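Note to self: keep these together.
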Amino acid sequence: MEFIYFLRETVYLLLLVIQTAMLARAILSWIPIDENGKVTSFLYMLTEPIIIPVRIIFNRFDFFRNSPLDISFFIAGMILAFILMVL
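Structure:
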């Protein structure tokens, strides 16, 4: 029983770190900084594996492909928030 609790808390903490990294990435996208910097590269490396599957799904629809906003980023954040609520 303790193993399941430990596993749940570990997954929860990992998802919380990813969600925080997504928030930091969103904030940094508003600031004109070097996109090849260490912090920005780390945030992209951490968050892109979560965003890419959602982006692939949404790119199938013309409406979302031509949108000026990155809807996949928002939806990935919502999915993470939902999983965190369930845990």
